[in-house]
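[Meeting: bench + compute handoff]

Bench side (C.D.) handed over the final construct sequence. Compute side (W.E.) agreed to return the predicted structure before the next meeting so the bench team could plan truncations. Sequence as handed over:
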Amino acid sequence: MAAITLADTEGLAAVSMRAVAAALGTGAGSLYRYLSSRDDLLDLMTDRAVGELRPYPQVEGDWSETMVLLGRRQLAVFGAHPWLLDVIHRPSGIGPQSLAWFDNCIRILEPVRCPVAAKFETIAMMTGVVSLFARRESAAGAFSFAGVDLAAYPHLVAAFSQPSGPAPRADLVERTLRSLLTGLLLGDSTEAG
């Protein structure tokens, strides 16, 4: 899709009806026959990007491992399309690829004994957490205390003066997703065998 290519290469601000039409070799008026606004275009772009999560994995063993795998795939899609971080949380129409994503997640979570509302909340929270990790990755190295006088912040100074200790445990993304999934879905319920 021309709009996605434009957003991937030049950023979301470059995506306008006129720019997309030019990339397609037509006039903006042609796009308005199919779309009523840029918001409609953003909805289509978002849904198309969500479609990149296919093919969905089959559950082989633990449902939580499959959900963590899906979370990693979400992270990869955010990495491939950084503009998605700016549009994924806005209120909009939900497209067929997004519906298929939710349907797939509910399929994976079938063995979990908990209210369906908890499953929907967990899927939304997983997407939110993954998007936070994607933001962190896209901003890696952008934050620094260099040149900042920390004298007024004694707790930070004390924390930085302590030995760093062992390297962090394996993959923070996976640990976080596992904790989120089990905490929200199994906290007050039991898993079906």
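W.E. noted at the follow-up: The chain has a mean pLDDT of 87. C.D. will use this when planning the next construct.
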